[in-house]
Amino acid sequence: MLRPPVESGTYTAHDFTVLCDKLGIRQSMGRTGSCFDNAAAESFFSTLEHEVLSRHHFKTRKEAQQTIVKWVVDFYNRRRRHSSCGMQSPIDYETSAANRAA
Q: Please, which of 4, 59, 76, 88 could form a disulfide with 93 given CB 3.0 to 4.6 Å?
């Protein structure tokens, strides 16, 4: 079982890197001081925390996983309008972009 890293560089910690490799996640590291590298991820996790995690008390890990996946798939990607997508949902934005490209 992996335990959370305790050093200050959480995203460069060995345990975190091992976990990302195990899950097939490619880590991204921008230059020091660049706010653009993690802006989208930080926005997503902030929204997740505000709209889901702060409003639920999960009894099990499975319950948390089901709630989060449902929120991401059914709401965040399909219905929630994003400023970075011209106030469209990601699904609508991608569909529009694909239609324009065709």
A: 88
Residues in a beta bridge with 88:
82
Chain mean position to CA 29: 16
Distance CA 95, CA 51 (A): 25
Half-sphere exposure of 66 (CA within 13 A, CB side): 7
Evaluate whether 90 touches 72 at the Cβ level (below 8 Å).
Answer: no
The string of pLDDT tens digits covering residues 41-56 is 788 889 999 999 999 9
The pTM score is 0.57
Mean pLDDT of 61-81: 91
Domain total of the chain: 1
According to DSSP H, which parts of 52-89 are helical?
Answer: 61-70
Query: Is there a domain that residue 33 lies in?
Result: no
Domain hosting 57: range is 52-102
79: left (phi over 0), alpha (psi -120 to 50) or beta: alpha
